[in-house]
Specification:
- The protein is of the alpha+beta class.
- It is about 30% helix and about 25% strand.
- The protein contains 17 helices and 33 strands.
- A hairpin with a 4-residue loop joins strand 11 and strand 12.
- The longest helix is centred in the N-terminal third of the chain and has 25 residues.
């Protein structure tokens, strides 16, 4: 058992180390890597490349925002230096890693996390030593403290004799990534015998077998992280076999998958088997691949697998649809939404930087286009500009600033249109001036993910949560302390029972899945009909919910709402975060409502409502809705055990339908008009012919908008709705164009139809084009389409184009 070190002993040890390594290391004058001989030593070349990747290049340390960031890095490293006190079971007093009862329970997770965090702190110190402008550049005391820390952790815990405890991630990814980064940054200062021991420790916890099969925790973003460990282990330990293994083990990440973790053909990205994770684990995977491609480029181990093009294609197929004005949408961030230090904007910025880095390995055309996309996203992020993001690393800052300063680039606007992601029960909708996203759950996709004490109250985020943002307004709607202060039973767009749920209800890691199949819809790429057969989490709640995403509105229908929880059931029209001030005016049918807090009212026969600075709401035919203006207080720690205990308060304006206790067949109908003025909202409500609700029952839900030539129906069961007849469950959207043609969009959200017959009672002259799934088509006074096996289309939309008579 090692005895605790006193501060005097620690300083004496540092002095010995200084004498031993001083002659071997010349402190760098800049952020450039130590000077290797790449031609003679390919491993030195890799280490030099990795130094550039983690330290950054092409920025002035005296220019902002880099000067301040470097100063902050130095201050953080100085604080770590001053508080480091090697002792039995810890390197810092506040980061005890010795586990008195090694296991895999929550306590052991915490101990293993502190072990990994200790390496991360040493990495911070090493970067402060290597970077210029930190105030500690080239400091021998700082360097020697890092070397002492590495030895202490290797002796105490991270060695080839230790049995791991707690979280596997800490031992296989968190700790070795930070350890190997330090080994690269201080390579010339670390004696070969020590490097060998550190490499042996990595080999012990991350053996070759960790990537032997593409299963378990070795998939998706985790696999990329493991490959990073192996590649750096090879560069530090001069092992060509390890680097080759890392390169080859990336290949299973590239192909599109049809189940489990990875990228799907429709642009979905899944991690932990059931969780949409484009904006968190997906971000890690994108960044990791970009760094590994750059690390190995031009070397004997360059990644040449042609399937890597799948990753390049995914930039616009998978990531871009969830980026808006620099943020990445919370609908695909899993439990990361509960981390107070990183909101949707701060999670989005690293993705922008990763796209820039990935572009260096793509085609010239892809690289230019991606840089133009990034420039647009970064310029439009007025709420949280990337260059002011305190959590964004120097390398990412430098990449984004390089794009912003590139006068040859024309920033590209936000894409316009609808994207449906049936493989992860998500949808995004973009129109000029606003964007929205929808999160649902089904037999394959979890209600929500909790784990590691995170996202404890995300219960209803998969119950039809409808997020929306404006182009120049409300971009901080979900960024400004939304998650710790919002009522978790009243998330926008959701239908939920007020039955009290325990923190983490349903189980960790996305374990709880609703026993439903009908989730998805049909889209022509511009508009969409989307539906969710909802079953409540740990509840008897059942409901049919439909959203019709149109040009300036989302039409929302609900039917068949029933529950026997002994609790009230509510559908939340919206729950807007008005910030600390919360004085946005609220008007109902032209009557201004009080700004005082708290204020509540039951709005009987309401035709429309408007919230200043946000948008409007229309209730076809009038409705009884409840409204509440309130101040809500919460803490990040309430939803994440590792979060801040500081109290936060935000003002909210909430609109909802109260379906009462244990409803048997409740329903609702409303239009959401993002960004609409009060006048436009009132005009839409007054135009009773603009929208026709064709059906809103437990069997079908459908609408018609004559001015758009649109008819859209979600058939929960076969039947007749308006001019459409279906003999089985399906989603249908028909649009008549002004050129004498029409498109018929059909999908089978249940993914089980071996046959489907759809009839459109409209005179059709001919079929212009059809997918292979249409086995026969008859025209005349009605169009009759017979579809073959739709189960193989995985819920994707099948489009038939016809010429009208």
């Amino acid at each position: 058992m090692t005895t605790a070190w006193s501060r005097r002993t620690f300083l004496a040890m540092s002095a010995v180390l200084t004498a031993a390594v001083g002659a071997a290391l010349t402190p760098p004058a800049s952020a450039a890597p130590l000077s290797p001989s790449p031609a003679a030593d390919p491993y030195a070349a890799l280490r030099a490349t990795w130094s550039r990747l983690i330290l950054g290049e092409g920025f002035s340390p005296t220019a902002e925002p880099f000067r301040s960031r470097l100063t902050d890095l130095g201050a953080k490293a100085r604080g770590l230096l001053e508080t480091m006190a090697p002792a039995d079971g810890s390197l810092w007093p506040d980061a005890v890693f010795a586990d008195p009862d090694p296991d895999t329970d929550a306590e052991s997770f915490a101990f293993s996390g502190r072990m990994a965090d200790s390496f991360t702190r040493l990495n911070t110190m090493a970067q402060a030593y290597r970077q210029q402008g930190t105030g500690l550049t080239g400091s021998t005391a700082l360097r020697d403290a890092v070397l002492t820390g590495l030895e202490h952790l290797n002796t105490q815990v991270y060695n080839d004799r230790q049995t791991r405890y707690g979280n596997w991630y800490s031992w296989q990814i968190g700790a070795p990534q930070a350890l190997l980064d330090v080994c690269v940054l201080l390579y010339d200062a670390i004696a070969p015998e020590r490097l060998a021991r550190y490499c042996a420790a990595v080999d012990h916890f991350v053996p070759d077998s960790a990537v032997a099969s593409y299963t378990g925790t070795s998939t998706g973003a985790n696999r990329v992280d493991l490959c990073r460990v192996l590649a750096l282990r090879g560069a530090v330990g001069a092992s060509a076999a390890k680097i080759a293994l890392a390169r080859d083990a990336l290949s299973p990440v590239f192909p599109l998958v049809s189940k489990g973790d990875g990228l799907y053909a429709d642009g979905s990205f899944i991690q932990h088997t059931t969780v949409p994770y484009t904006g968190s684990y997906g971000s890690v995977m994108l960044g990791g691949l970009g760094m590994l491609f750059a690390l190995l480029k031009g070397s004997d181990w360059e990644v040449t697998d042609p399937k890597r093009q799948v990753v390049f294609d995914a930039v616009e197929n998978a990531w871009a649809p969830f980026l808006f004005n620099g943020l990445v949408m919370d609908a695909v961030a899993g439990r990361a939404i509960s981390r107070g230090e990183a909101d949707d904007h701060r999670r989005g910025h690293p993705i922008l930087a990763s796209i820039v880095l990935l572009g260096q390995g793509a085609s010239a055309a892809e690289n230019t286009r991606w840089r133009s996309l990034v420039k647009g996203w970064a310029q439009r992020d007025y709420y949280s500009p990337p260059l002011s993001n305190p959590s964004l690393g120097l390398t990412a800052l430098a990449r984004i600033k390089n794009v912003l300063d590139d006068t040859a680039l024309t920033p590209l606007p936000e894409p316009d249109g609808h994207r449906l992601f049936p493989d992860m029960a998500r949808a995004t909708h973009r129109r000029p001036g606003w964007a929205a996203s929808l999160s649902m759950a089904d037999r394959r996709i979890t209600y929500y993910e909790t784990g590691n004490g995170e996202n404890l109250r995300g219960w209803h985020t998969g119950s039809g949560m409808l997020y929306w943002w404006g182009d120049t307004f409300a971009n901080g709607q979900y960024s400004d302390a939304f998650w710790p202060t919002v009522d978790p039973y009243r998330l926008p767009g959701t239908t939920a029972s007020r039955k009290v749920l325990a923190n983490g209800a349903g189980g960790d890691w996305g374990a709880s899945l609703p026993d439903v199949n009908w989730v998805g819809g049909a889209t022509d790429g511009k508009r969409a009909a989307v539906g969710q057969y909802l079953r409540g989490l740990s509840s008897t709640l059942m409901a049919k919910k439909s959203w019709f995403f149109l040009d300036d509105t989302v039409v929302c229908l609900g039917a068949g709402i029933q529950c026997r929880d002994g609790a009230t059931v509510e559908t939340t029209v919206d729950n807007r975060n008005l910030g600390p001030t919360g004085n946005a005016p609220f008007t109902v049918d032209g009557s201004a409502k009080p700004l005082t807090l708290p204020w509540s009212a039951t709005l009987t026969g309401a035709s429309w409502a408007h919230l200043g600075g946000h948008g409007g709401y229309v209730f076809p035919g009038g409705a009884t809705v409840k409204a509440l203006r309130e101040n809500r207080t919460g803490r990040w720690r309430d939803i994440n055990t590792g979060g801040s205990a500081d109290q936060l308060s935000r003002k909210y304006l909430t609109l909802w339908f109260d379906h009462g206790r244990d409803p048997s067949d409740a329903g609702y109908a409303y239009q959401l008009l993002p960004g609409a003025t009060e006048q436009r909202t009132a005009a839409r409500a007054a135009d009773s012919g603009w929208l026709r609700v064709l059906a809103n029952s437990d069997d079908q839900q459908g609408v018609a908008v004559p001015s758009l030539g649109l008819t859209a129906v979600n058939f929960w069961f076969g039947g007749t709705v308006g001019p459409l007849v279906a003999d089985a469950p399906c989603s249908v959207m028909v649009t008549e164009h002004g050129d004498g043609t029409a498109t018929v969009c059909v999908s089978d959200p249940m993914r089980k139809r071996t046959s489907l017959t759809l009839t459109w009672n409209r005179t059709v002259a001919s079929v212009v084009s059809k997918p292979a799934t249409v086995t026969s088509a008859a025209t005349g006074t009605s169009l009759r389409l017979v579809f073959g096996d739709l189960s193989a289309t995985r819920g994707a939309t099948q489009t038939v184009k016809v010429r009208l008579a």
